[in-house]
Every structure is written in structure tokens, then in C-alpha cells.
Amino acid sequence: MQDLVTELEKELRYIRHEIEGNRIVIRVESSRENAMCPYCGVESRKVHSQYERKLQDLPISGKKVRIVLRNKKYFCGNERCSHKTFGERFEFYERQATKTKRLQEEIERVSLAQSSISAVRYLRGSVAEVGKSTICTLIKKRRTRG
């Protein structure tokens, strides 16, 4: 399972997983010792707290997947920075996202091939919990990316 987790991000560590009905819940944590403040670029090693971030991911063996990430929040040591704390960030999801980038790409792919109503029906059945508004938002983002 660690190999699957590091495909998302090299700096993630597998903790455990549970199967809950038609869903696999995979619990992971950061293996980082430090993080860069996204606002000022100063490195910090001083952890403020931890919190859980829940993200949907691509299915495994026909089961929907939820990643539960134990994310660290750090103090920024730069007195001139406008933020006193910040959460560590990872490449496999966008800021404030509830789905991994690769799941978003799959939703886009499916949605471009059929109507949004058909796509929602298919995706909810076998891939992830999505609504029509999610599909519309992702398609709009895709168009602005070019």
C-alpha cells in the first residue's frame, strides 16, 4: 500500500486503510520534517498543529477511495510575513480541493464524452461522489486553462 501512496506524493507515509462498504479509506501522513511558507518562502520546522484533510481519489478494485491526510500546520518564523501559520501543501491536489488532480482529470475525461447527467450517473456509480455542478466547474476551469 505504501507504493500506491507514494504514487500520489513521495513525501507521504501510509498509516493504515479500512474498507467501509463500497469505499476504501486510506490514512496517510506527511513524512516531511519542514515546509516552506507559501506566502514568503521561508522554511519552517516548527509545527503548530495537525488536521485532517479528506480527498476523493481514483477507485481501486471497483471501490471508491477516500484519502485522509494528516496535514501539518507550521508557524512561519518570518516576522515580516503577513501569515503567522500555514498548512503544508502537496502537488497531488489543488488548494482547497476535495478531489485529487488525477480524479479531477478522470471526471473531465468522462464528462467530455457524454452529457453531464449521464456522466454524473456513471461517476457516482463507480468512480466518486460528484454532482453536476462539480462537472460544470471542472469543464469551465479546463476551458480557461486553454
Number of helices: 4
Please state roughly what percent of the residues sit in beta strands, choosing from under 5%, 5-15%, 15-25%, 25-35%, 35-45% or over 45%: 25-35%
Structural class: alpha+beta
Report how far apart the termini are: 36 Å
Folded structure, characterized:
The chain is an alpha+beta fold. It has two domains: 1-92, no CATH class; 99-146. Helix content is 30%, strand content 35%. The protein has four helices and seven strands; from the N terminus they run αβββββββααα. The strands form two sheets. Strands 1, 2, 5, 6 and 7 form a five-stranded mixed β-sheet that branches. Strands 3-4 form a two-stranded antiparallel sheet. Helix 2 (101-112) crosses helix 4 (132-145). 23% of the residues are buried. The mean pLDDT is 93.
List key phrases describing it.
single chain, 146 residues, alpha+beta, five-stranded mixed β-sheet, two-stranded antiparallel sheet, 4 helices
Mind sketching the topology for me?
Elements: H1 2-8, E1 12-20, E2 23-30, E3 35-36, E4 43-44, E5 47-60, E6 63-75, E7 85-87, H2 101-112, H3 116-126, H4 132-145
Parallel strand pairs: 2-6
Antiparallel strand pairs: 1-2, 3-4, 5-6, 6-7
Quick recap:
The protein has 146 residues and is of the alpha+beta class. 30% of the residues lie in helices and 35% in strands. It has four helices and seven strands, in the order H-E-E-E-E-E-E-E-H-H-H.
